[in-house]
What does this fold into?
Amino acid sequence: MKKPSVILKLVIATGFYIGYLPLAPATFACALSILAWYFLLPYRAIYIALFAVLFFWGLIISNDLEPLMGKDPRPIVIDEYACFLIPLYFTPRLILPLAISFALFRFFDVLKPFPLRKLEHLPGGWGIMLDDLGAALYTTVIVLILKTVFKW
It folds into this structure.
């Protein structure tokens, strides 16, 4: 039987077990970010604090679970739902910008353009979290450009 602390870590790391979905768990985990964006964005300080807490928990928890589950295990999705909060912070509360932010984040997370693939090879929680942080930053740059161009 698993210790309660391991179970709690699994619940957080897998996004309340979304990570165990058989198809596209990382994509579905982004729905957690969208919920936080929808309900918490008006409370900017809480939103930023949520990102910081999730990111640092992600580093610690994924570092603890990786020896049990293997290198960058598929069920761990805290990296997606924590880091997707960054581009969402700059995304207007409209469907088209939301869809574009989502598509860009998933594109960069899956494709892992330079140097994201290298970040993925870092040890432990760093390798799990930093490639998604990079995907979030790439997405944010494009979202900010689009906001300027299209006056969102």
Summary: Residues 32-150 form one domain. The chain is about 75% helix and 0% strand.
